[in-house]
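Dear colleague,

Following up on yesterday's call, I've attached the two folding results inline so they're easy to grep. Please treat them as preliminary; we haven't cross-checked anything against experimental data yet. The first protein's sequence and structure tokens come first.
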Amino acid sequence: MSAAGLPTRHVLSYGGGVNTVALMLLLIRNQEPLDEVVFADTGVEVPETYAYMEITRDYLERYGIPFHIIRKRNGKTLYETCEARRVFPSAIWRWSTRDFKVHPILGYYRSLGTHVNQYLGIAHDEIWRMKDSPSPYVTNLYPLIDKKMTRADCVALIEAEGLPVPVKSGCFFCPFNSIGRWKWLYETHPELFQKAVVLEEQSKHFPAQRLTDQVFREKASVKLRDLASRFADGELPSSDPSLSACGGECMT
């Protein structure tokens, strides 16, 4: 029971990347309480992340742990919402995180009628991201930090379990994408890169604001179409999808 007298439920907030997959394995291996795993779906993850969810679901089924996907109430994806508003996600105001991640998950937790101990997959080398939950019915727990596990430790744990290592999760047009992430998208999912170009150029704030503004802080005139030309010319060689500027920015 919680301090407020409510029953307590233990939930893993799943992001689809290395840290939360490793945390899932760690909790199960150590027989920690885990009632369910939840994922707030913006509808715009890369295809590899959605494919990995099936691996996750199958793994959880072995232990009888449910996996729930939660979406915004109106059913629209983040891309559809951005199209309708003629904007793209703001790295400053973070409305997309609030509306598509935080609020849907907290709304689901409220519906449970319990206190929720929420496991969050933040590794020890990201300890600065720890914070208390703003909701009185949610307590944030950080087992990876408690055990001083780094991202490299998380990768090793996944490999030791015999599972593939997931690509870094995140919306394909995330404003925190690194150059490596953008180039990986350009090479691996050109249709998604082109959708990001369209979204950027149709924004009512373009060209004053661009999806690359976070990564080109000193060269803020760089547009996605510029990046595509540079990629085509063989510039900016790194295409490692793990090199994303997003350090799990959409933590709930």
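Below is the second protein, in the same order (sequence, then structure):
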Amino acid sequence: MGGLAALAREAGHKVTGCDTGVYPPMSDQLRGLGIELIEGYSADQMAFEPDVFVIGNVVSRARQPDGSPRYPLMEAILNSGKPYTSGPQWLSGHVLHHPTHHATGPRHVLAIAGTHGKTTTTAMLAWILEQAGLKPGFLVGGVPLNFGVSARLGDGNTFVIEADEYDTAFFDKRSKFVHYHPRTAILNNLEFDHADIFDDLAAIERQFHHLVRTVPSQGRVVVNAGEAALQRVLAKGCWSEQMLFGGGLLNKDGFTAQGEPHDFQVLKAGQVVAHVQWGISGVHNQLNALAAIAAAEHVGVAPETAAQALATFQNVKRRMEVRGVVAQSGGNITVYDDFAHHPTAIHTTVDGLRRQLAAAGKGSERILAIFEPRSNTMKLGAMTAQLPWSLEQADLAFCHAGGLDWDARAALAPMGDRAQVAGTIEQLLEQVLAAVRPGDHLLCMSNGGFGGIHARLLQALKA
């Protein structure tokens, strides 16, 4: 929704927005754009008399324990009869399929879907198209460091969008991405998530197939060859060109990689077509790169040109972002911030840091994983059994369990003394500070603000 606000502001509209607990980097970006942020959902915001209310999917008709509405502004909008729409619907009608004065025709929309890696891959693809001179518009669920903003209209005919399978709004329960009508769609990976919306993996596969149905016959569906769930999606029907990536020897005609994640050859149909050498770690990012290269090729960008662009890709804020380094005799202590919250993402993030340290000759240095199960899926306890596996490569793990309805200590019991649980951020800080040693890497993982733990850790360590 913050990205939508930025696009509306760039298009010349006056924009205000309300939410609860808005945190950086989005809060900083919006204020920098002159967009007024209002805390809470009070009905007195009707006084702004906007032309349209754009409703995010956090809003519902829910009631407080005392019977009062949780979102009084929404009730006032409905009672007034004022026009309202969902974020994805507004985006589709006013940006994706509404050419700017710079564009020469309808936009070519490139949408990136998947349980993991959407934000990073969207940022990669936008940067590739930018370096290729296509001047794309984009909407990313984070802040790409190469651009410094999460969204822009762009001056060309392409628009790159992070395509989320979460529901659109309380009045439109379809997945967001069915509104986008892409000509190029990346299906990065697929596993169970959003337990508050979907009953099982089959329900999510059905939504992904709804996305596939919207891609034209002249379009391209870029698919991870190693994902069985995505093969089931395609088996339901696909009417577009399919381009596979990953999957090793099983993928004979698509894009594969040879070499280490930070330095690898890109192959298409078994022939080397590019070489990627960059500062990004992790096998998952190698796959993200292959997907972005395959999608960029569909709009005329050669793989070698795409690989050259990736050499200068700087990732996204809150994706293994180093928040600070504290000098200590015996070894510096590094504090990272990462958006990981699903067990698979946590496992991948810890593994990526472990590989990065090993490649730098620092394989013996410790990783302290500091995390909070904050997503709706994690809060519901749908994946507690996977937590010990997700943290297996961390030397120590610290869990903020405040507000959970399930027993985090029991879930992490297989880790023994390697795991600690805290009910408050203050207690979590005490536990980490009691355990930290020179040379440690403090990896903080959350899809929220995490109580500002990164800055608090750095301040305490410096003191």
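For the second protein, one point worth flagging: The first helix runs from residue 2 to 10.

Best wishes,
A.L.
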